Each structure stands twice: as C-alpha cells, then as structure tokens.
Amino acid sequence: MPSLPSLGGLRGRVPERPVSAPVTLSPSAYVVDCGVYVDGARLPGLWTHTDAVEEVRKRGDGFVWIGLHEPDEEQIQGVADTFGLHELAVEDAVHAHQRPKLERYDNTLFMVLKTVRYIQNASPDTANEIVESGEIMVFLGRDFVVTVRHGNHSGLAAVRRELEEETERLRSGPAAVLYSIADHVVDNYLDVTDNIEDDIDQMEALVFQPRSRVSADQIYLMKREVLELRRAVMPLAVPLRRLAEGYTPLIPEHVRSYFRDVDDHLTEVSERVINFDELLTTLVNAVLAKITLQQNSDMRKLAAWVAIISVPTMVVGVYGMNFDHMPETHWRYGYPMVISVIITVCLTLYRIFRRNRWL
C-alpha cells in the first residue's frame, strides 16, 4: 500500500514546555496499549486512558490511541465514559459478532471490520477449517482512537509500530490510524485469497485425477469457508466508499483518497471470492457427474454379469427338474454338450459386452 507523504505538516509542532509525567501503570489483561501522539511522535511513558486524554486536551493538540482486547461491559465502561462513546456502539463492541459496518454517533465514528486468518493444512481435501475470523471495532473521535479486538489473530501491534516509524502519517491524526487499520485488514484478505486460490487449484487437480476419491462433502466444506470470507469482505465495501466520499469531517480530504485505494483492493478481493464460489460450484457438479457416471458404469457391469450368469442358470435349472422324459438325458455326450453350449454362449456374451465397454 502507498505511504502518506502528503499527510505531514497539518499539525502544530510539539510545544516546548515539558511533558507532564504520566501515571505509570502495568497494562491490564484487556488493555493492550495506550499511547499519546503529538505531531506524529509518541510521548514517552505509560498512560492510563484518563491521563492520556487529559494530556492531549490540555495541549490542544495530538490524540490518544488505546487498544483493548475482548473487554467485558464492566472493563470497557470507564473508557466509554472518558471518551463519550455511545452505549449502543459499546454494546456492539463488547458482544462482537457484527457485520462490517460504519455508524456515526454525534462526533464519533464507529466502524466494524472482520479479520480473517488462513489456517494451513496438509492437503485441501483433508482440511476441516481453512479460514478463522475475528473482529476489530474502531471508535474514532477528534482526538482519540479506541480499538477493540476479538480473536487472537487480529493484533494491531505491527500496525502501531509501522505508524510510529512514519511520523508523517501520524500527523494526520486519528484518520490515519483508521486508514492504516483498514489497509492492514484488506491486505490480510489478499493474503488469504492467495492461499485459498492455491487450495482450490489443488482440489481441482484432485477432482479430475483418474480414480480420484475426492468427495463432494469436502468441496462443500471449502465453499462454506469461502462463504465465511465473503461475509467479511462484501459488506465492507459500503463503509469504505462512504469514508472515501466525505461521510464525516473526521476524515480529512487528503486522507479520503487513501480510503479509495483500500476500496480498490477490496474490490479485487471481492471479485476473487466470487470466482472462488463459482469455481467450487463447478467442482461440486463435476464430482457429482463423476459419481453418476461411475454408478452407471457399475450398473452396466452388474447387468452384463447377470446376463452371462443367467445362461448356465437357465440350462441347469431346466435339467434339474428330474423328469423321466426329458430330451438327451440318457445320451452319452449330453453332459459335455450342455457344458460346451453354456461356455460358448457365455464367452460370446462376454465378448459382446467387452466390445460395448460394459465390462
């Protein structure tokens, strides 16, 4: 993704007065990180959310970024009160299982993004799970970003480190953080679709391999995993488009173009996911057609062998009735003649069925 070279110079410089000493606290189980950013640089020290927002508002510059991981209602309440988060959005952030969406509450944006992670398997035809999903909720205000994560794979530590190394991007404030998170999530979508494409290629090769044992159940499982990816990808298009089109003044004009870039990448992912679903449907139909063809072949073989076996069965059945006046019962060559006739007829039928590819 492109960097944001044009995002700098939009904030004032750090005032020369000394930084007030923050309260030093050990991070809790649900508070992953809390940082104060002024003029694109992170202020040193550990901060509570209350001290962090007080410092920013006292300066009149900068913003707070606090990251939470699966907090409960009691744990998030203090953060919600400090930043004035809407109770409905807070409820969604705690309970999760939301569709990707974008909502505006007064001067705060609430955005939900679904994260996905590819699960490596030895072979696609033996996999029980391919995609694992999680969620990231983002509260965006004029001077704060609150991220709430659900799932163990949806960490934002790498995003934070990358942003802290590029002060030009952070000078644009909370909007740059939201862009970087969306960019990170969509990049993961691209990585997952690359891996799924490889799995589908392997599955396609297995389906059309002679004497293949791939079942339709396994392909349905892969379709279900692709459907989970589709539920994460498709609904995100509308929120990204709204951010790119000036849905809120919290996203400056110079940042909107970068959301358009993320939307372009999301469109690419969406098209690939749709193609995956169509291809898997084709593979299911191919497997079912192979099963039907195999069943027809088996029925032809059974019918051919039944026809062959019916000849000796009929002859032996006739001569097993033990009547006194039956033709050729006392003829010296009767038995070898009957056996010869049976073998001749059976071999003739066998050659006919082989020529017609029934056997």
TrEMBL record:
User: Has keyword Acyltransferase?
Assistant: no
The protein's location, in the record's own words, is: Cell membrane; Membrane
Enumerate the UniProt keywords alphabetically: Cell membrane, Ion transport, Magnesium, Membrane, Transmembrane, Transmembrane helix, Transport
Catalysed reaction, written as an equation: Mg(2+)(in) = Mg(2+)(out)
Q: How does it sit in the membrane?
A: Multi-pass membrane protein
Transmembrane annotation, as ranges: 302-321, 333-353
Main localization category: membrane
* Cellular component per GO, a single term: plasma membrane
Keyword set includes Transport: yes
Q: Name one GO molecular function term.
A: magnesium ion binding
Family per record: Belongs to the CorA metal ion transporter (MIT) (TC 1.A.35) family.
Q: What does this protein do?
A: Mediates influx of magnesium ions. Alternates between open and closed states. Activated by low cytoplasmic Mg(2+) levels. Inactive when cytoplasmic Mg(2+) levels are high.
Name listed for the protein in its UniProt record: Magnesium transport protein CorA
Q: Which organism is it from?
A: Saccharothrix ecbatanensis
